[in-house]
Amino acid sequence: MAARTGEQYLAGLKDDREVWLGSERVDITTHPAFAGSLAGMAGYFDYQHKYADDCLMVDPETGQEHNVSLLRPRNEADLQRRHRAFDRLARYSNGMLGRTPDYVNVVLAGHASRTDIYDRSGDPIYAQRLVNYWREVQEKDLALTHTITHAAIDKSVGELQGMNEDLTLRVVERREDGLVVRGAKMIATLGPIADELYVYPATPIQQGFEHYALSFAIPVASPGVVQVCRDHYGVDQSPEDRPFSSRFDEQDAVVIFDDVFVPWERVFIDGDLGVYNAVNAATATGSTQQQTAIRASVKLEFAYDVCVQMAKVTGTEAKPETAALLGEIYSYLRIARSVVRDSEARGSDWGNGAFFCHDDISALRTMMPVWMIRVNEIIKTMGSHNLLATPTAAAFEDPRLGPLLRTYLPGAGGISAEERARIFRTAWDFAGSALGGRIELYERFYLGSIARARGLDHKKAQAKGETGAYAAMFQEIADTRAAQSALAGA
Ligand SMILES: Cc1cc2nc3c(=O)[nH]c(=O)nc-3n(C[C@H](O)[C@H](O)[C@H](O)COP(=O)(O)OP(=O)(O)OC[C@H]3O[C@@H](n4cnc5c(N)ncnc54)[C@H](O)[C@@H]3O)c2cc1C
């Protein structure tokens, strides 16, 4: 089949998946709440064809056309090829969709590039299964999501200890034909409207907890997979009135694996801690974070422009306080672009011929969430009450209301009342609507918490020997003093 259209994606969702919204088990293909989300995701599949030059490529081995995000990068040109695709795909939603399928595609391609890590188990079957799966995803153009975070509730003990022991996904039975797994994962963005779930290593697991050290992939519709949706934030309004909430609620859900069977051919890690604990360090920053950083940069670009429009329509563009806020967002964008470009230019073979970005790209993981939160704060600061004085497009059509709105809510500088309302509606949908609030939470946590990322960066700095400046200063002082004493004594 290879690269699918939106229609083909929608046809693939007709199955027996168990999705709960509130107290109701729903058929996502017919339930009205999901209509906008499904159309939005179908649009993504069509978009890859519309911009086929950027988004699609032909696999030299199979001759099939597939999304560039499934490329296993082998050199700098491949990284550039991926950059172009990630950038284009992010523009579909201006970065507001976090879990477009290119995200988990790039994770999988990264893993399939490092089969040497999987071979550490001593059995080549695991790497072979992983490569087979990567090929299958290419061939079927599946929409994957991941659910990798342990379902730890009690933070006073270890992630897999105390009450957490029985909450998180683990093996409960080994059969001739596969594994039976039980427990939860927190959470799966896109889960209810994806084709498959990819479970792979997240935070490291210690000895004695091998039955949690799992990686596998299964269809969302596998018996026993129960998805519990958060409230849906999509709205049944036009994209002109609600550009994001009408199309881009990528629905998060808690995933409960209620004794789910996983066939052996879909098991990639089975209790091997050496492999489990090595996968992330070998792939996550250099490979995955190329996609996430480019997606976020595209979003910053959009945020900057929306803020410029807000300044124009209120006549504040030339005011120093507004210019400072606009310049602040632009600085974030420029830093993000520079880090991405620099990390790509300093890409290297991470092992097994896998050519990934320099690990310094991970600095954006700790800064981007802070900037995203700040951008939303700037939108609200600049927008003020204007964010709420925003009639819908249809309100302007009303013969009584339309003329009043044009009289009392025009834009500054000759900008029409309709355009003024659209700018502020867009800004509110970006930063303040129910979906906007959820997206801010996503930016904070989707790559793990900022605190964890910073702690990891500190560890890396120590391992790289990024220390000694303090001792060097006092050595310099001591050397100077000794030289002066020698001179004085001479
Ligand atoms: C909208 C959304 C979508 C998501 N989608 C997915 C998905 O599809 N798949 C998936 O697997 N995961 C997903 N996640 C991520 C996952 O659910 C967790 O939110 C994430 O991994 C963080 O987990 P945690 O709560 O254990 O964080 P923790 O690291 O425990 O952090 C919790 C809080 O404690 C603070 N903290 C932690 N350690 C320290 C410290 N040392 N010092 C000071 N403060 C500290 C943090 O700053 C944070 O405020 C998503 C999250 C969100 C919000």
Throw out a few tags for this protein.
Butyryl-CoA Dehydrogenase, subunit A, domain 3, 4-stranded mixed sheet, 14% strand, binds flavin-adenine dinucleotide, single chain, alpha+beta, 490 residues, 6-stranded mixed sheet, 15 helices
Structural class: alpha+beta
Distance between the termini: 86 Å
Structure annotation, total helices: 15
What general form does the structure show?
globular
CATH architecture of the domain at 279-463: Up-down Bundle
Helix content: 40-55%
Biggest sheet layout: 6 strands, mixed
Uncertain segments of ≥5 residues (pLDDT<50)? none
Task: Kindly identify the CATH topology of the domain at 279-463.
Answer: Butyryl-CoA Dehydrogenase, subunit A, domain 3
Q: Over the alpha carbons, how many angstroms does the gyration radius reach?
A: 25 Å
Q: What is the C-level CATH assignment of the domain at 279-463? A: Mainly Alpha
> Can you identify the CATH superfamily of the domain at 279-463?
Butyryl-CoA Dehydrogenase, subunit A, domain 3
Total E-strand runs: 14
**Small-molecule binders:** flavin-adenine dinucleotide
Nearest-integer average pLDDT: 97
Largest beta sheet: strand ordering: 2-1-10-11-7-6
Q: How much of the polypeptide forms β-strand, as a percent range?
A: 5-15%
Element-by-element helix/strand order: HEEHHEEHHHHEEEEEEEEHHEEHHHHHH
